[in-house]
Automatic annotation (TrEMBL):
Protein name in UniProt: Putative oxidoreductase
One of the Pfam families matching this protein, by short name: Ldh_2
Sequence similarity: Belongs to the LDH2/MDH2 oxidoreductase family.
Organism: Paracandidimonas soli
Keywords of the record: Oxidoreductase
InterPro entries associated with the record: Mal/L-sulf/L-lact_DH-like_ah (IPR043144), Mal/L-sulf/L-lact_DH-like_NADP (IPR043143), Mal/L-sulfo/L-lacto_DH-like_sf (IPR036111), Malate/L-lactate_DH-like (IPR003767)
UniProt xrefs under PANTHER family: MALATE DEHYDROGENASE (PTHR11091:SF0), OXIDOREDUCTASE-RELATED (PTHR11091)
Single GO term (MF): oxidoreductase activity
Keyword Cytoplasm: no
Length: 358
């Protein structure tokens, strides 16, 4: 039985826009948040797309997510900028913060931006892509204050979040390197996606609530929760701790230090380092060596089950082309959850279905 529907991106965007009105956002903010969420789905990251809406609705109802909050500047030392997101929607706070950091980088050649107290910043690659569109390199360390869901390397229970890390590097002719991942072996949202689809996880990704290996995604979704493992063993764990210390304790002013408090909010702290590569290197030299290296790396004969060698960011662009053409799959359970949240926010779910072309 078919358990998902394929949505045309524009229709899904308009349906999500309607849902976000239920948070009391203005039209511009609704459009921006809807666009960000649908773009996460378009790039293949369903974990950070429209399926996050029910969680946002719960965070809003408990009084954590503040849809009307605006970005505050708390420290300003020229190229060093400290910002407070006031628990606003990360999709719009993140964009405002990056706009500021980009304009500082244009002025000074570099900017280190600390952003704290922001509700879920979504797909972090979005912010690296923004910088790349302005010809800038950016590096992002992010922590997550939510239910701890990742075990430290060698540990057997969840102590911290999926702390994402991203790097964006602009390359010639509009090409770009966008490395963007959770430092857990998979993003937590991928356990929700698997659970809603009735799928199993791969072995070696998760421990159950007793610290035993499991492939059942329920341990990432419902209590009693288990723990995801860090990617890359002790190395991924080390990078996750760098995200906690730089993105959380330093930039966000808050880092994980105890068990879940039962709240539904997802708070991100982010330390972003932006710079103009043309102020560091000879652009022609950088481009020439970047292209030579990429050509050399990509010439490696692919293994039998692999089509071609891809660089970070290419998979997302391929999926985006495919989904723009064929539609975005949203499973039935996720769509029902979105409609239910919309009703609870006072938005007519029939209207949402009509906007989505259902
Ligand atoms: N805001 C938050 O709190 C939060 C927390 C965790 C994750 N996230 C986001 O979740 C999203 C998903 O994270 P993830 O860890 O599941 O991502 P993932 O495992 O899909 O890895 C994505 C990265 O790997 C690259 N990649 C994919 N296939 C490749 C291949 N065959 N060869 C070379 N490179 C390849 C991609 O281009 C991308 O840079 C990210 O956008 C991340 O920012 C956000």
């Amino acid at each position: 039985m078919k358990n998902h529907h394929l949505f045309e991106a524009a229709l899904l965007r308009s349906a999500v826009h309607e849902v976000i009105r239920g948070f009391g956002c203005d039209e511009e903010q609704c459009a921006l948040i809807a666009d960000n969420l649908v773009r996460a789905n378009l790039t293949g990251h369903d974990s950070h797309g429209v399926g996050m809406l029910p969680r946002y609705a719960r965070a809003y109802r408990e009084g954590s997510l503040q849809p009307k909050a605006s970005l505050q500047q708390t420290k300003d030392a020229g190229i060093l900028l400290t910002l407070d997101g006031q628990m606003g929607f990360g999709q719009s706070i993140g964009r405002q913060a990056m706009d500021l950091a980009i304009s500082r980088t244009r002025e000074h050649g570099a900017c280190i931006m600390a952003l704290g107290n922001t509700h879920h910043l979504g797909r972090i690659g979005e912010w690296a892509e923004m910088a790349v569109e302005h010809g800038l390199v950016s590096i992002h360390f992010v922590n997550v204050i939510s239910r701890p869901i990742v075990a430290p390397w060698g540990g057997s229970d969840a102590r911290y979040g999926t702390n994402p890390f991203a790097i964006g590097i602009p390359l010639r002719s509009g090409d770009r390197f966008i490395l963007d991942f959770a430092t857990s072996i998979i993003a937590q949202g991928k356990t929700r996606v698997a659970y809603n689809r009735g799928a199993s996880l791969k072995p070696g990704q998760m421990l159950d609530d007793r610290g035993q290996p499991t492939t059942d995604p329920v341990y990432g979704v419902l209590n009693p929760l288990g723990a995801l493992l860090p990617f890359g063993e002790h190395k991924g764990f080390g990078l996750a701790m760098a995200c906690e210390l730089l993105g959380g304790a330093l930039a966000g002013g808050w880092s994980v230090n105890g068990p879940a408090d039962g709240k539904q909010r997802v708070v991100n702290g982010m330390l972003s380092i932006l710079f103009d590569p043309s102020k560091i290197a000879q652009p022609e030299n950088f481009e020439e060596y970047a292209q030579r290296t990429i050509a050399w790396i990509k010439a490696s004969p692919p293994q039998p089950e692999i089509d071609r060698i891809v660089l970070a960011g290419e998979t997302e662009r391929d999926i985006c082309r495919e989904r723009t053409h064929n539609g975005i799959p949203v499973d039935t359970q996720t769509w029902q959850d979105i409609l239910q949240s919309a009703s609870e926010l006072g938005v007519d779910s029939q209207r949402i279905n009509r906007c989505a072309g259902m």
